[in-house]
Give the backbone structure.
Amino acid sequence: MGERAVTHARRLTLAHLWVAFAAFAVAAVLGVWQMWARSPLPAPYLTAESYFTSVTAHGVSMAYVLTTFMVMGFGYYVAETALGRPLPLPRFAWLGFWLGIIGSAMTAVTIFAGNATVLFTFYPPLTASPFFYIGLVLVVVGSWIWCGLMLWAMLDFKRANPGVPVPLAMFATVANAVLWLWTTVGVAAELLFQIIPAAFGWNESVDVGLSRTLFSWTLHAIVYFWLLPAYIAFYTMAPQAAGGRLYSDTMGRLTFILFLIYSLPVGMHHLFMDPQQSSAFKFLQMSFTALVAAPTLLTVFTISASLEIAGRLRGGKGYFGWIAALPWERPMVLATGMAFFMLWFGGGGGLINMSFGMNAMVHNTSWVTAHFHLIFGGTVVIMYFAIAYAIWPTLTNRLPMSPRLQRLQLWLWFIGMMVMTLPWHYLGLQGQWRRVATFNYSDPIIAGWGPWVIVSLVGGIILLASALLFVWNLLQFHSARAVVATDLRPIYALAVHPPERVPAALNGFALWNVLVLVLMVAAYGYPIAQFFIIDAPEAIVHRVNGRG
Amino acid sequence: MKPAELREIDRPWRIWASVIIVSILAFSVVFGFLVLPIVQGRAAGLDAFTAICRAVGILPGSPAVKQPTSEAKAQPTTQVAWSTDLMRTFGRRTQAGAEIAQGCVACHGEHGIAADPQNPNLAGQSAAAIYKQLHDYKSGSRVHDVMTGIAQGLEDRQIVEVATHFASSARRDLDPTTAEVVDEDVIRLVERGDPSRGLPACNSCHGFNAGGPIETPTLSHQNREYLARQLQAFKTDARRNDIYTRMRSVAVKLTDREIERLATFYATTLSY
């Protein structure tokens, strides 16, 4: 491995991750202000327009910029370190990066100019300035380049090492790349054929049913695109950090394959209350959604077993003694424990959301917002922090004196997220609706919500403190004393039985792509085709950047 | 490992993975497309075939509920239905529009700027807003001693033409002696509303760039007396052509003093 190439990928990774976390820090500030705006306490600068501008900026930064750049940067890192080979075509990687930067900047300018108060979901007939969408398309195109490079890197490795299993971290990263290519088809079709023409004024009406259906194709799978780095850390980094071994490499491969399969034909569970889809297809997609529990439980089992190995190696005894024996002072181990804890609550809430009947009670309430903050902001983002803490020393060759502030930051995030989201869930059950700027607290029913919103706001403030501390901690890496060049590889866990020969099915994605195609045709074939068969009424496009 | 060996260990994976996934698909299809609709449809008094067609989405309605029958007659507050065909007709200023506008001069002024502040200015108003009001006068959704008769004499095409004509006319200049009246309370109402009374911000519909309904009129440059009188009409339920009682539910919560101040604000401001 050439030293120059390694340095190159480090810069690439650092560039991506810094963009991701810079967007995250800005969005965290906006998030607190939004919670303040929704509370009974008078918030500064609050108008409906400023609120929706802020929510749009918060959503886009957290859900598109933080995640995409994090996944890409981490992917480049894994491709090089797990495969032990230089990244192929680094120029294309930089091209993808700059496309993402230009796209993000274009989107940000449009939002803060007040021309995109449409939130980060693409639900016409409300449309923003076309530059909002074009910016986001550029980010997606940049990420497609990343997908191509990940596939290329894996195939290159396979060609050079016939019969050798692709390391799990890379296999999972490519699973995410394949997942992302499938995922973006829906939203790309919606943007290119419906929304961008409408935003430019070329179309005066839009088939809302079709666009909601296409967006649902993307809307759930995208969550798994964000989630998979966390799972990669669970499987490949946490057991090593705990001083143990991965209980089963095969379980890991199966988990990522199941995520690929069962994240896609399930998006209609976001449309349970929509009239344009029939109940049988909603039922079909609900069944597939339920199966997402399989990889989740596989993971909980495998990682608990892996940590148990570590705990017992460290002298833990009895049924639960191994838990106490784990090295909780290490950020990766601590974050994994916290992520699992939040996963129980978030996953439990998710089961309610995806149940056709129960969904009716929480649909479009704060419950949903609280759910995705807990599962994404909680479980996933806390693992982003842990990943950053784990790989930053190898990126900078520097190590701060003590991980004490890192632990403090993780604890603050964990506590803040629980304090913010649990009351928020409760308010959803009380019927508090989402996507509104202010509440009428003089209404006696709504008045009772006030104290709980304030509790959530306190959680938000703790989260902001944690977010700022996180950025501070990363800066500490850059200013810390240089250490002897760290080896790039040892952060990945070995399996108890390291894979020697792996069936092609667990070493590539050909079979699974075919099965995904079958499921997608079954789940989305007629639901999309019906809009072309049946003459559906269209809605008049409503552009927020100008009258009419 | 040799390729033949690799294929050997891969085969069961391919077969079993496909079998399991196709079985799950088959189970969901049988249950969701057949069993549930038939069972639920029976309870709703539907035959199996209808229930299945409804479940698949070929027939409208839910397989679990009987289609409700209703004797109620809809009584819309307005007869205007926005369609792309209608929207497409706006935007081109025609000679015919200018000619029809000649009939408006007496009350609305030569260039759509009324001399009597009791009457609205039309110059620069959105075409959709003018169309909606004229159409409502014509259909009887809104009533006025003079306007009802005039609107009934216009064809739909003529309403579009005259609306387009006024929409593309230049707005009134503001009187420099009254401009820049800063009224903090009213600005708060306009920008933020008053959540404690369930009052939305005026700007949430009437603001520039707002996401309000298509027929929402522009309020700045409007005459003070006209605005105040309309808010009072909404407040007292004398005017009822607002869909979903949007304006009536707002106006009824405004005090008379606020109505006066809001009217003054909009009549003397440029930027909203």
Q: What stands out?
A: The first helix of chain A runs from residue 3 to 38. The two ends of chain A are 59 Å apart (CA to CA). Residues 274 and 459 of chain A are 33 Å apart (CA to CA).
